[in-house]
Design brief:
Length: about 270
């Protein structure tokens, strides 16, 4: 009986993560050095490595703003989260062996834009009006409304509504949309309630804080609100007060909420 024994030796030139000492090659190719951006823009990071890439992160001014483990490595940056001016972008990638590669720094210039994907607008609406005091001895008042937008202390735009003759209540919406510059970080809204046939001042709602008008200083992104306002603030009324109650709705339209990084949550 012939017994044959065959010994087989196996070897391989391949290396696993524990043998990898080469860092990934990382680059940002779609952002020209010195490019200007406003609102939200995307950054694509390109990574090459001889083993699997574990994590890719984007840095803004040296701060890690988000990371991802999924290819393609696309990030979205919101300029509204930083001051206007020059900033730096850099990407870093880590492979499964722990090697970290870094891209070159890319300088960019950013400006604020409260409506990153569209033309931002401010809509001011009175949705309810109630006369609380008798303004005329023989009839109801003749109310109308004035909305004013001020930017940097200067009047930017004014809207004056129609006049409602002999009217004590209005339940329709008196609305106007203001198209203001998208780089506005703060604006002032002034709302006046007036009566066309009163003697002397036509304003018929008094607020102790601001005289014969409601006045707010607002940021376009955070300004949205709905509120009921009675000029005396205590709900009382008398013949001398020329008082009324309104429901005011302020909306910023055509904008996208604060998104520093769309793919930061996976």
């Amino acid at each position: 009986m012939l017994l044959a024994i065959i010994l087989v030796s196996c070897s391989s030139d391949s290396t696993g993560p524990e043998d990898d000492t080469i860092a990934p090659t990382v680059s940002i190719l779609d952002i020209p050095y010195g490019a200007s951006f406003s609102g939200i823009f995307s950054v694509t990071v390109y990574v090459n490595d001889d083993n699997n890439v574990d994590t890719v992160a984007l840095y803004l001014d040296g701060q890690n703003i988000a990371s991802t483990t999924s290819s393609p490595y696309i990030f979205y940056v919101n300029c509204n989260d930083v001051e206007d001016g020059v900033h730096t972008l850099q990407a870093k990638a880590q492979d499964e062996a722990g090697n970290i590669g870094e891209s070159e720094f890319v300088a960019i210039n950013t400006t604020y834009d409260f409506a990153p994907y569209s033309n931002g607008q401010i809509r001011v609406s009175i949705t309810n009006y109630q006369q609380l005091d008798q303004l005329d001895l023989s009839s109801f008042g003749d109310p109308y409304f004035v909305y004013i937008i001020k930017i940097d202390g200067d009047e930017f735009a004014t809207y004056t509504s129609e006049i409602w003759l002999n009217t004590a209540e209005i339940h329709t919406t008196i609305s106007h949309t203001f198209d203001i510059p998208d780089n506005v970080r703060e604006y002032q809204l002034i709302v006046s309630v007036r009566d066309s046939d009163t003697i002397g001042y036509e304003d018929i709602d008094y607020t102790s804080q601001s005289g014969y008008a409601y006045i707010w200083t607002l940021n376009p992104i955070t300004s949205d609100f709905v509120g009921e306002f009675n000029g005396e603030d205590d709900g009382s009324s008398s013949f001398d007060d020329n008082d009324c109650e309104i429901t005011l709705d302020v909306d910023t339209i055509n904008w996208i909420p604060n998104l520093l990084l769309l793919n930061s949550i996976k």
